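Section handout 9: paired folding examples.
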Amino acid sequence: MDGGMGGRGFGMGRKLASVDLQLLILGLLADKPRHGYEIIKALDERSKGFYVPSPGMVYPALTYLEEIGFAIIEAEGNRKLYHITDAGQAHLDANRARADALFGQFDRVGERMDRVRRAMNSGAAGDEPFSDDAASGSKELMQAVRELRRVMEDIWSSPRDEQQRIAEILKHATADIVGKSPRG
């Protein structure tokens, strides 16, 4: 599996194949019984905000897992607590390598998200990443980071094709900074 964000697990963007989502849900249920909202929150936390499935993805997956006998529901008032069944555990065990790879991808993406957030927040008010005795040019670098952060905030709402164009520019700029050719 490709370890990048566009790898086999996520495909294009932040979508995850339904069979992979089901496997991740079983992995979470194997740890402990959970409500649907807790599953959404756990996936959000695990990926550090990169992948937050909608209730419209999670609840049908939970219903399907129940229908095929991989999960059972315990009613708690008007809420449902989902548990993995023995059949669900057997399916998870049979697909452990895939589940571990998906969770590993979440961890890697989460780490990348943290690095991006730290980079975008460096030089923010009260957070000067460079000391006074840093190499000359650090003020220029801080200014450039601030300007990039400002521009990036505007980009989040731009059309997808524009975001892809800018992603390519940033990929090439990053490669130029580290002295490597970008992967195509």
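Moving on to protein 2 of 2.
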Amino acid sequence: MSQSSGQLISSPSVADADGERAARHSLRQQIAKLEREISAIVAEGFPHIPATAPDGRADAAPRLLGLGELERSRDSLAARAQQLRRLAADRAEHERRSHERLRAMKLEPGRYKFARLPVRDLGQGGCGVWEVRPRLGLIGMLAGWWQLKLSSGCPLPRGSRRARGPG
């Protein structure tokens, strides 16, 4: 800094360094916000929305990123967040349509003969399947008696107990 007529004047390099520091800080905050948003979208939509590894180089040594690299990182995270938002919206629409179909299957099972709807499509975990079946087997099918049933869930493991292990 130089002093001229009683005023302090900062040199251009100090002003540039302060500007770069502020830009780095802003970019790091934007990157952190995007990473939190991506994490929240993946956590809420898992397993239907895949969690992918970051696009960073695994073999790179620790270093201070330049402004250009920070901007590229921010831009790639913004694109990934937009892609995940679109996937989450598509999944929510799929689940909404599945809920509507289940509601219709409950109201008029005869219109949905042998229709199947996995609970996975409803956003629920497990292996269950909603299925429209004839009541009382063949007699019910010929008489037009249809009912909606939920399967018991995941199949049991196959094989003898000894081959499957203890417990």
